[in-house]
Amino acid sequence: MTATDRSTELINVAAQAAADKLAHDIIAYDVSDVLSITDAFLLASAPNDRQVKSIVDEIEEQLNKQLGAKPVRREGDRDARWILLDYVDIVVHVQHSEERVFYALERLWKDCPEMGLPEDAKATRGKAAEHAEQRAAEEADLDGELR
User: What's this model's pTM, rounded to 2 decimal places?
Assistant: First the structure.
């Protein structure tokens, strides 16, 4: 079994919305062969809580506006470290970068086929590592200035 056309459509709109809000490392997996509850997972991350919320809000808005889709469940809003949007056909996980590394959902789903995504979403691969390196360099510069 593979993800349905509807799931693919939802994934593409959600991935583009996440990319538009500068999400990092957007990836989608077709989990239809291993899970009966959903067809696909979309994973995305951001370096701070405010951006996590912004990405989730944009995904919700675009899925509603473009496809008339509303989540049946939304979890994790309080601290915005990991927000899950359940659309039945797809489940969207937007995580703070630290949670993304810690929980490593990619390791759990790596045997599932990766789904194609819009170019803007593909271009986000490696952004979390790039951002972490940049922050480390900025902190090192700051340390040097304080001495």
Answer: 0.89
